[in-house]
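Bumping my old thread because nobody answered last time. Still need a sequence for this structure:
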């Protein structure tokens, strides 16, 4: 497994591999890998001749007073997981290499970036779109894999890739959960044992709404009310948003169907957690 830190070396390596006819699979991450990331890497190993993992905590997708400085990092553990999953190249650029002096370009996916996390974190998806475009140019992937836990991010990246005619196939992978239902996230490491128990209100709210939908409830207001009551019964939980949207366009809905996305963001203490489900798909 090769570790590359320089942007120019990564791009030249990728271009050489492409000239040799190699198919590149790519998993971009911010590191502190867990089983959710590993599931992407294992699928990437199946889909490509060369598997590239990037680890880069992207400063331009963090807002003021967010957790950029304390975002968890463990390069040694990350490289161990990468090796176990068959990664060929770990690309670990630094911020100066990614955003050299004078950098002033950004990518905006206008409408999909506005609701849900976009409303709570203005500019976040501009930072995501910009860094992913840059990484695609450096790594030259044929296929890139992202987790469905960040559903809106995946929608934004798919739209951007299509709109800019980028020759990359985007693959979304299922949410990986702990045994008790909590969606795996690097930020789960922030939680105290008591807060960890409080987080279960997210997956319980999703489970409740899926059960209500399965029993025939289609009224979005009723589904939202039931989920809010469950989460608000948890004293440590503060709801950022809990919404039901069209799974493709993220437009708001009054009536749910199999393509409806239920998405929520909840703060437990100082930790903001997100989760989602699409009613027509299994958890």
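Sorry it took so long. Here it is:
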């Amino acid at each position: 497994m090769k570790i590359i830190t320089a942007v120019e070396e990564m791009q030249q390596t990728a271009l050489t591999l492409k000239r040799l006819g190699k198919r590149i699979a790519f998993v971009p991450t911010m590191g502190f890998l867990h089983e959710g990331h590993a599931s992407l890497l294992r699928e990437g190993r199946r889909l490509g001749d060369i598997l590239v993992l990037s680890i880069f905590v992207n400063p331009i997708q963090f807002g003021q007073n967010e957790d950029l400085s304390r975002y968890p990092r463990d390069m040694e553990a990350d490289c161990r997981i990468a090796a176990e999953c068959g990664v060929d190249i770990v690309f670990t650029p630094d911020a100066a290499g990614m955003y050299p002096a004078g950098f002033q370009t950004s990518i905006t996916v206008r409408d999909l970036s506005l609701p849900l996390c976009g409303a709570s974190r203005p500019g976040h998806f501009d930072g995501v779109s910009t860094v992913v475009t840059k990484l695609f140019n450096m790594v030259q992937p044929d296929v890139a894999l992202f987790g469905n836990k960040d559903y809106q991010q995946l929608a934004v990246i798919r739209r951007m890739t299509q709109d800019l005619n980028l020759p990359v196939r985007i693959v979304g992978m299922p949410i990986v959960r702990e045994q008790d239902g909590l969606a795996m996230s690097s930020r789960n490491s922030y939680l105290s044992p008591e807060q960890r128990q409080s987080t279960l209100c997210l997956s319980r709210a999703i489970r409740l709404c899926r059960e209500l939908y399965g029993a025939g409830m289609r009224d979005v207001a009723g589904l939202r009310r039931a989920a809010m009551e469950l989460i608000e019964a948890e004293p440590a939980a503060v709801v950022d948003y809990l919404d039901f949207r069209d799974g493709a366009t993220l437009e708001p809905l009054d009536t749910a169907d199999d393509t409806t996305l239920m998405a929520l963001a909840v703060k437990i203490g100082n930790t903001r957690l997100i989760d989602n489900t699409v009613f027509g798909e299994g958890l």
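The mean pLDDT is 97. Let me know if any region looks off to you.
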